[in-house]
Design a protein that fits this description.
The protein is built from seven helices and eleven strands. It has a nine-stranded mixed beta sheet with strand order 5-4-6-7-1-8-11-10-9, with helices on both faces. It has a two-stranded antiparallel sheet with strand order 2-3. Strand 4, helix 3 and strand 5 form a beta-alpha-beta unit. The longest helix is centred in the C-terminal third of the chain and has 19 residues. It is globular. The two termini are 24 Å apart.
Length: 326
């Protein structure tokens, strides 16, 4: 989807202060000491708050940075991963009410770890097709404390971290100009990827890479499709010198090297910026959290272009192309 006249105005990420380190995981028997050098994260963030509270804080910070009255919000797209029965019956509406977004259309999105990208896409579509929509907020939150297995159980390939992130979108200028956004799916992988229910206790203590290795070819093919089409929609050549960053999901070095980097055109592989060493995989929030880094990173000057890629088991992939305008 080629995008014109829509910007990401502001972004924010809220991370808990508590950390669970890989060294702790070794001591607790969750991680083999031999896996430490290749572990996907040095530490992961652990919340003591419900996911919706993290999400609310991320939304509040995003609107504060933009100096926008919450009552001006027209659309609120929210996605979360949690395992608590104590959450509100409809977190999007609860957060919208607590924000003071009194007239926003609130909805929840479920697309596994691609949920944050889906929330952004819904906001972009709403702004592009409904003239009454002036401001849209995309947000995500994750709380893996209720998992029926240790959050390091998929390490060294992956480790789960808690946190929330949000992005405010609108017309006109902002932190980024949205150039293109493409999503592709491959539901044929649903029964094999992951090989077990991703959040159900199994007889295996560890579930390496939760299906990335067995489905690497199909995953790479889907990612290659969204990258190729997003570049075309944005009118960019793969070797355009303005492209300075490619943000993959926060899935660690092993998964990135196996599933993401080979799917990229050769000129883009040197620009991969893998984050998550101190957070782990933030569920549906990787793309939104990576936008925060792209906004604040001084190595990305005004005019720089960044590609943000995310994936969700099942399987879905998205590529967002943005130009930094601040």
């Amino acid at each position: 989807m080629k995008v014109d006249g829509i910007s990401i105005i502001s972004t924010a990420c809220v991370l808990p202060e508590t950390l669970s380190t890989a060294a702790d995981a070794v001591t607790e028997g969750q991680l083999d000491v031999r896996d430490l050098p290749i572990c996907s994260a040095r530490a992961v963030t652990v919340t003591t708050e419900p996911s919706w509270e993290l999400g609310l804080r991320a939304c509040e910070e995003t609107l504060k940075d933009a100096a926008l009255d919450p009552a001006e919000l027209n659309l609120f797209a929210y996605t979360e991963v949690h395992f608590s029965e104590l959450s509100p019956w409809s977190s999007p509406h609860h957060i919208a009410r607590r924000l003071g977004a009194d007239h926003a259309v609130a909805l929840g999105i479920t697309q596994m770890s691609n949920g944050g990208a889906a929330a952004i896409q819904h906001c972009v579509t709403g702004l592009a097709t409904e003239q009454r929509t002036r401001y849209a907020l995309a947000a995500s939150a994750s709380d893996f404390t209720g998992l029926p297995f240790p959050r390091w159980a998929s390490a060294p390939a992956m480790a789960y971290g808690d946190g929330a992130a949000a992005a405010l979108l609108g017309r006109g200028t902002g932190a980024f100009r949205v150039a293109a956004l493409v999503t592709a799916g491959n539901p044929r992988l649903e029964e094999t990827f992951p090989p077990d229910h991703p959040f159900r206790l199994t007889t295996n203590r560890r579930t390496p890479a939760i299906g990335f290795a067995d489905n690497a070819f199909a995953v790479r093919k889907t990612i290659a499709t969204v990258v190729r089409e997003a570049l075309a929609d944005a009118g960019l050549a793969e070797d355009d010198p303005r492209i300075l960053a490619v943000y993959p999901p926060r899935l660690g070095t092993l998964v990135t090297r196996q599933s993401v980097t080979p799917a990229l055109p050769e000129p883009l592989r040197a620009h991969v910026r893998l984050l998550g060493d101190d957070t782990g995989h933030l569920g549906a929030g990787d793309m939104l959290a990576n936008l925060v880094d792209a906004e604040s990173n001084p190595t990305l000057p005004t005019g720089a272009i960044a590609l943000l890629i995310t994936t969700g088991i099942g399987f879905t992939a998205t590529c967002l192309v943005v130009e930094k305008t601040v």
